Amino acid sequence: MTFWGLFTFFPIAHATNLEALFAEPPSSASPWVFWYWMNGCVSREGITADLEAMKEVGLGGAYLMPIKGPTELPLIDPPLVQLTSAWWDMVRHAMSEADRLGLQIAMHACDGFAVAGGPWITPEISMQKVVWSTTEIEGGHKRSLELPRPDVNEGYYQEIAVLAFPLVESAQVEEPKVTISLPEFDAQFLTIDQDDQRVRMEVPGWIQFAYEEPFLCSSITITPDGNNYQAHRLLLQASDDGESFHTVGRLEPPRHGWQNGAGIVTHAIEPTTAKCFRLVFDKDGSEPGSEDLDSAKWSPVLKVKHIEISPEPRINQFRGKTGEVWRVSSRSSSSLLSDEDCVPLSTVIDLTDALDDQGRLTLDVPGGSWTILRLGHTSTGTRNETGGGGKGLECDKLNPLAVRLQFDCWFGEAIRQIGPELASRVLKIFHVDSWECGSQNWTPSFRGEFEKRRGYDPLLYLPAMAGIPVESADVSERFLYDLRLTISELLIKNFFGTMDELAHENGCQFSAECVAPTMLADGMRHFAEVDIPMGEFWLRSPTHDKPNDIRDAVSAAHVYGKPLVQAEAFTELRMNWDEHPAMLKSLGDRQYCLGINRFVYHVFTHNPWLDRRPGMTLDNVGLYFQRDQTWWRSGKAWVDYARRCQAMLQCGHAVVDIAVFTGEEMPRRAVLPERLVSTLPGIMGKDTVEHEVERLANRGVPLRELPPGVKHSANMTDQADWIDPLRGYAYDSVNHDALLRLAKVREKRIEFPGGASYGLLVVPISRPLSPNSRLMTPELAHRLIDLVQAGAQIVICAPPKQSPSFSGFPGCDSQLRKLVHQLLAKDQNPEHDVGQGRVIRGPIQSDSFADLGLEPDFIATTPSGDRVNNIGWAHRRAKEGEIYFVSNQASSEQQLNVSLRTVGKVPELWDPVSGRRNPATTWQMATGRTLVPIKLAPHESVFVVFRRPTELRDSSEGPNWIELRHELELEGSWKITFDPELGGPKEPLEFANLVDWTTRPEEDIRFFSGTCVYRQKFYWTPLASDVNRYWLELGKVADLASVKLNDIECGVAWTAPYRIEVTDALRPGMNDLEIKVTNTWVNRLLGDQSHPDAPQWSWTTAPPLPKNKTLREAGLIGPVILSAQ
């Protein structure tokens, strides 16, 4: 470490609980792993070896998750299929071994990792969706007709309603002539709903629909070919002669997640009559991709299978608004849907009872043209696709009976098979992992639940679920909002609430990952029903990274009072076999800065063999973190680092000043920093604003490639660009539920029961996931008034104008206007008092919130005073004092002055890599802040801890970092021993100097992966008597180095500055030095691949590495220097 100055050798006296936690982190601070049992390949000896390896490096437990069934050619004979007696025997063995070793086990809600299904789930209790068919008839006489049955999945269909309403007048349907700018390409197939042909366009061009007579276009439905953004941002032009075109408008893609970008979208169009319509493709102006615009991540080409231009008015992008998929879209306006385009509610007739069991309808409606709408529900057909023997339909997430059955048949059966006594000691966590089964929008009890919750019967409004507007655009949108709200509430209560209840009944904690962006919900609300919220982050996989997942989990943990918040850690799209702890450190530290305080490493794949290395993998996905990793044993130092960090970050509660309201839209999520630039431009700074404008401009729509073979938008948002976005202020998101139920005001701060406390609530400007910030329920507005009158400070950018809901309509809108009048001053003053609090009109142009009594919590500057923005930080307040975690996110050394918002206590510097604790020797206190100079090596981190009261205002007793002078460079030859069991030379070698192994001519050295032992004897004579400590600086290391001097283990160097203290081992005279250096698997795998006919020293189920991949630097490269402090 670079911190410890003149007095660093003096121990800090009077050990406290905080010190004890740091020295010996509790079990809660130990990282866990996802333990995947792949393809039925499980062995008793492999289980024992896996668990012993976990215990050896200090892991706390494992999430046991079987993945898929046996491959076509099983890798072991016989394979062990999930749910068989032989497989349960292995589960019992795993639990017994975990019990013996003092490890804990978690199990998922089903076979595989998504989400909750199995063979016991029949179609009627599987996830349900609304389906429909329409029939047009002429009224005026009694008649009987057979209604077409809507689409059916899994052979299951149940009626919801049959409704009749007058046919809205529309233009006559006509088959257009379709042409395209591509030469010699017949695009007529685009008018047919088919799956065999598609248009692919890489350069600007157009698709034209020509009609014999003027044709009314009111909506356009597009089916893309795969996950395609460009299909939904085409420019619509119209012409009456096919030569002179005018622009009608550009289609706007809905915000969507990774599971529904390939779906059908119906775009409402301002009614336009013409004989010719063109859809023009040009990638310029494309938005870069994001978590909520997944299809824009990929190459900007147009890929489309079907286009329907229709005169029928439809609710804009209704499939997302009905909850069929996770999407967010702008509301349909009256310019898109006039009242004349909508079905009057007074004309809707309920004919449900007139439909017989054979689907025949007997009716007698007045004269005129009528639409008969038959609505029902069927299974979505989704399954837990990553399962094996336990694979089946996903249970109905809105039906508590289906949820209970799912729990009992998988997790409950696990408890019965293990035995309740053993399970009570070992099986400690029930888990719901990645939500990968899409959304659902119905359950048999839905109509009654809707009426109970929203206060009105949804029956006559149900045409809106088929996209047919009722009464008005506004009424249709309000009803669909209420529909989505009801879906979210039922998901929380009936799925998460039921699972939470059952987990606790069985003595387990409940952990869960995010539901967004796949299942319609409030992305934070479900975490109130779990014990351990969990997000996820990815390594070198920008297209799959999930910064919003992290923000959802952390913010929810804070506002709902969950002390542990986990992350699925270091998941990787394409494993490169070159991963090592130093590479991972800054990414992990960044998540600590955001509020994560326990990692679950992804992934420890069970290796059933003891003689095949590296062995089993999750194909090529995930960080290879298992017992046959080359650096597994020396990597314990990295795990110890995590344990210390997590122990500290679990103390007390997070100190966060700013709460950002997630909005009233549904679905909703925590707010990402880039979405706050328009609301807080002054706080985020001019450079950030300009950078974001340029990023969103996406000029030229550039692509980049990471990992190899995965091309994507170069301007996608990157978490690494938002390390300290509010420049010294931390923020959380807070949702409607938490504000309504839990928020209180104390001493002008909004507080929540778990300890979260915010000095300012920000209601942001409209943004992609909240396209209309002027929508607000009266309940929320009333709550804001209560809070501000009690002393809270609130920033509001746009005065709310109407409620998003139909509940209480129209009185809800007038009530809202009265409340907004109370909240906001008539004179448009930027600030005004309301009761004991204050309302501030945004956007905020000032560069701090100091005028509101909120000084920045953390400021990092260079010695010359320039602001530094690549320093991550987190602040926690414990009973013993203030804890700041500080992380250098740069790949270069930085000397800093960190100014922290605390006074009256001596700063201490605690090193989570070495475990040493030392008082800062130089610091200053003034105006409510303490300034501490520090120096951080590349990607280094430190805890600044304030515990001990002091009357002093400053100290200046030398630098807070190590200043070294070189005493001896260990030059000359080294005796080096490779492991012949891993393909290394059989006999020890002598290197004349330190070099990268891959530069050697010997192939058994060049391709070696594993641990190599360097030995050298050196003679040392002390040069001075004033030296306190001695350090061995290793220079360049690839990748980990364990140092032993004179048979005394001195430690592992795994991260910069690659320096180990040797004070207690060094002796005058001759010294015997041994350094064990471990590299990664990549060189051995490349060597074996390039010599397929030679003896193979590796064996793995992972696919081969790319042929163009080169060897990676390896070994101790140095220079190795003995230095004195």
UniProtKB/TrEMBL annotation:
SUPFAM superfamilies linked: Galactose-binding domain-like
Keywords: Hydrolase, Signal
Top-rank lineage group of the source organism: Bacteria
Domain Beta-mannosidase-like galactose-binding: 1012-1097
Record-linked InterPro entries: Beta-mannosidase-like_N2, Galactose-bd-like_sf
UniProt key word Signal: yes
A GO MF label: hydrolase activity, hydrolyzing O-glycosyl compounds
NCBIfam families reported for this sequence: rhamnoside_JR
Protein name: Beta-mannosidase-like galactose-binding domain-containing protein
Lineage of origin: Bacteria, Pseudomonadati, Planctomycetota, Planctomycetia, Pirellulales
